[in-house]
Every structure is written in structure tokens, then in C-alpha cells.
Amino acid sequence: MSKFSFVNVGCFALITFCATVPTLAADPYKINVILPLTGNGSFLGKGQQQTLQALQAEVNKSGGIKRPEGRVRLPGRPVQPANGGATGQWHCVGQKPSVMIGSSLVAMCCAIAPLLKSGPFDYCLSPGVHPAIGSFQYSSSVDTRDLMDVMMRYFKMRGWTRIAFMSSTDASGQDWQRGLDEFLARPENAVMTVVERQSFNPNDISVSAQIERIKASKPQIFFALSSGAPIATVFKAAFQAGLNVPICTTNANQTFAQMDQYKDFLPKELYIASSVFIPHDGLLKLDPDVEAEQKEFYAVHKAINVAPDNMSALAWDPAKIVLSALRRLGPNATGEEVRSYVANLSGFAGVNGLYDFRATSQRGLNNMNAVMSRWDGTVHNWIAVSKPTGLPLEN
Question: Is the pLDDT of residue 82 over 70?
Fold first, then answer.
């Protein structure tokens, strides 16, 4: 049986590799993985690359993808994805695979979606994408709408009801802005007030003017919703302006690399709505199977001397779910067969929670799988400060 390894395929301008896993035959089974390894999104892609490579080694140790004993191999049928126009350069789709993983970016996943009308099955690694129900695209971890729900519940119960909001003008920032507007429109959130709303271009080198207006509005909590290098611009401006209020940002920034790089100007209180993968001993009790999966997750990363963060968690579960489908269906499974398998999957234990795709289409998780976390520089980690759904722990 051949080794599970990554190979270079040049799938897209930002992409440099795809993944392979062994089948019953000598030739490897290839899983196309689309990750941003350069530019503003590289902090996402590089962390996910490490996780997938570590998982690849573990899969090899356990024998790769094996067809269950006595199971008839499913007939291979070619997947015929839509193609053409500006998307003609999408070489991975053009290869007509059965399954794909990626991208990590909202804009790119949204660009991929129209190509998937008849397959392949694609697991986007961004929670900010909201695939159509029944489609071939799935989205990793807890939906940003559910993360917003956790944020609003936590801060409302803390009595922090005066919100200042600032988002980037890219696809990710716009998604968060729509999410905020949806939740403010709910009757139960009438007590929450946006005292200032600002936006900025991700390429802006300064947002000092916007931060001064936010400071003047005297918020109790500041939502800084952007990711990657642009959030550093916001944090610096807030630090220089002396904006000393709790700041909440997106889980796209839940990376050790960013916390280390920004340590000199991080907010004193930095909150992130997170899936339940974060360390929580003595704080939360999760499903035993989820706890066992998290134990493996941390052990695999410890073996390669990597501290896993949200980027790792976003990649781990989708890869495990895809591998589960291929092990169950066999290496000749089509995109439709993989889609059908995942759509009916329930009780699957991942590091982000217990998945039930029948209850939550295209994702398998909801706000019961999310908590509010706070960055604690003294322990160099995110600490859970709420129960699932955002109820403060002290309550």
C-alpha cells in the first residue's frame, strides 16, 4: 500500500498542493486540498497545511483508506463539475475529483460554489460560508451566525450593551456585518445598541480616524471583525488611541502566530467566540467521544511540536469526515455518494463537537458547540469564559 503524501498540483494562484491517501491498490488516492499559502490568508493556510500533514502521517500508520471487510467496491462514475469562463483556470475542479477540501477563504469558497452543481463534494474550511441546503459544498466548524449568537448572549448577560462595530469591506467582513444586523433585529436583542459603526479597506495602512470616532462613542464592547494582517492595523490604532474597552474579534484570528506577532499591542481584554476545541479542563464537560477526539488532536500536534489553534481545528474535522466517507464507501465513491453519506451522518465526534448533519445541514454543528473565549497571555492560550451557547460560566 502506497504512502499518504502531499503533492504539488498548482490548483490556483494561491494554491500549491493537494493531498493523497492510500487506497486498496498500490496507487495513492488523491484528495485535492486548496489552501492560501501566500498573501493575507497565509496564516490560515500554513496552519491548516501542518495539521493535514500531521493527520496524513496518522492515517498511514493505521493503514490508510481500507474498504470494510466483505463490502463490495462501489462502481466508479466520473463527476462532471461545471467549468469554463473565468473559472476555467480552476484546475482541481477540471481534474474531476470526487472530493475536495478548501479553500480557507470566504471569497474563494463562494467562487467555488457555482462549479459544484453536480459535484465534486467540497468541504470549505471557512465558517463564514453558508452553503445552500443539499448542495455539494459544506462549511467547517460553527457557523458565523451561531458565533454571533454566542457573542450577543455573552455580552448581553455581562451587561455590555453599548456596541461599537468595525468590519473590513471584504467578503468576510461583510458576512459579519450581515450577521450583526440580523441579530440586532431580533426582539430579544433590543437592549443591544450600536453606538458607532465603521468600516475600512483591508489594504488601509491606518484606521486611526475610525478608532477615534469609536472611542468618542463610549462603547462598552468593541467588535473588530476582520482577519489576518488587517486586524493588526485595527489593534494598533486602538492601542495608540487608548481605547481601553473589551474587544471581540473573529475566530479567524484565533491563531498563536497572530497572538505572538501582535503581543505588544493586543487588547487587554480580547474575546473570541470559539468552537469547543480549546482547552477546558475544570471548566466544561463535553461528550466523552468528543473529549477522546480532542485528546488525539492535541497528541498528534504535540508529536510534531505544534500548538494547535483554530486553523488546526478548522482542518482536522473536515479531513476526518472525508476520510470516514471514503473508508465507508470505498475509494471509487462518487461526489454524490460522499455528499449523501455526509448529509446523513450523525453522532460523529470531532474536535469542534458532536456532528449531526441531519439536524444542521451542510455543517453538522450549531451554537451548542460554541463558547466565548478570552486570550490569556499569562498561560498563552484561549480560556473558555462561557458555557456552550454563550452563557457566562459564573452564572
Answer: no
Least confidently predicted of 137-141, 282-286, 341-345? 282-286
End-to-end CA distance of the chain: 54
Are residues 306 and 260 both part of a single domain?
no
Under the banding of pLDDT at 50, 70 and 90, the label for residue 96 is low
Residues 371, 310, 169: CA angle, nearest 5 degrees: 90
181: Cβ contacts below 8 Å, ≥ 6 apart: none
Domain that holds residue 216: 144-281+370-390
Cα 233 off chain centre by? 22
Beta bridge partners of 162: 193
- Gyration radius (Cα) of the chain, Å: 21
Number of domains in the chain: 2
